[in-house]
Amino acid sequence: MTTALLAGGGTAGHVNPLLALAEHWRVVEPEVSIIVLGTEEGLESRLVPERGFELQTIERVPFPRRLNRDALRFPRRFRGAVRRARALIRDRGVDVVVGFGGYASAPAYLAARLERVPMIAHEANARPGIANRLAARLGAAVGTTFAGTPVRGARVVGMPLRSEIVALDRVATRPGALRHFGLDPARPVLLVTGGSTGARRLNETISGSAARILGAGWQVVHLTGTGRGGADPELPGFVSLPYCDRMDLAFAAADLVLCRAGSATVSELTVLALPAVLVPYAAGNGEQRLNARGMVTAGAARLVDDAAVTTQWVADGLVPLLMDRAAIARMAAAAHALDRHDGAAELLALVREHQASSKRVG
């Protein structure tokens, strides 16, 4: 029986692919023992137990980006996190470590190296993060979501996605999805989402442009997040929710998506062949713009800078697109033609191959 330690967390971008792999692994190998290593502060503290997996935690120790008091405390705190991960590997007889980036991954990678346990890293973004760059230097096998991610020797495996998204039949599910949101089946639907935490600029712009979008003959499902700005009007055909726990239905209802370009979102759009207008998050290291590159190059998405998303842009850019159903149909066809990977299965195959090769070398 395999005992696997899956490390990652903090945000949905790290937690969701971790859980997608864990659930797929449990389906194909029911006897596998899966332990998740995360932090008490991240989303994993809620989502992992909800999905029926064991969660073990270590201290959240961000890599210092400037010289301050936290930077001086970092070496001691990081060593403590590594010791905790090493003890977990030894005490539980862990056979393999799979990391997904985030605060828990770097200590897990170093612990795996010190305990001589094979390790695999999954890099969700087109530009790799610090933890996964460390994993590559320590000899991990690396699977990436996007082709061209600059990690030497990496294999493109795609993004592990929730089974309800991978298996979604949008055409068959659409009538029920429209009923779920109380929408008119005769009118197209624009889905607007800023991701799990929302996006203030998207919220404020869409809230201020609701009547104009509805006047173009469309309906809107607006997922705002909590406390992220905007006051949506109560108008027929405009559905506003802080959070949607049935994203499969939201995607099934949608004809076009206006959203951020997080790696999971882009992967979901690709798998579901949904055309999109992508608004990369302006902060960070620019990875969202790179994440969007494949869809934009293929003609499946249009890219708009965050600063350009204003009510005037809605009038001059978005509404003309909404009125051009032929252009949206071409975008949908381009999305359908994109190469799609079964990310969870491909990543598990990489894990098993690396385990096998490590045993031969050992």
Textual characterization of the structure:
With 362 residues, this protein is α/β, with parallel strands linked by helices. It folds into two domains: 177 residues, Rossmann fold; 174 residues, Glycogen Phosphorylase B (Rossmann fold), CATH 3.40.50.2000. The chain is built from 15 helices and 13 strands. The strands form two sheets. A seven-stranded parallel sheet has the order 3-2-1-4-5-6-7, sandwiched between helices. A six-stranded parallel sheet has the order 10-9-8-11-12-13, sandwiched between helices. Helix 3 crosses helix 4 and helix 4 packs parallel to helix 5. The longest helix is centred in the N-terminal third of the chain and has 24 residues.
| CATH 4th-level superfamily of the largest domain | Glycogen Phosphorylase B
Instruction: Please identify, by name, the CATH architecture of the largest domain.
Output: 3-Layer(aba) Sandwich
**Structural category:** alpha/beta
Approximately how much helix is present in the residues?
40-55%
Order of helices and strands: EHEHEHEHEHEEHHEHHEEHEHEHEHHH
The rough form would be described as globular
The fraction of residues assigned to DSSP E strands is 5-15%
Instruction: Give me the count of strands.
Output: 13
Strand order of the largest sheet: 3-2-1-4-5-6-7
The low-confidence runs, each spanning 5 or more residues with pLDDT under 50, are none
Number of structural domains: 2
Rounded average pLDDT: 92
Q: What integer value in Å does the Rg equal?
A: 21 Å
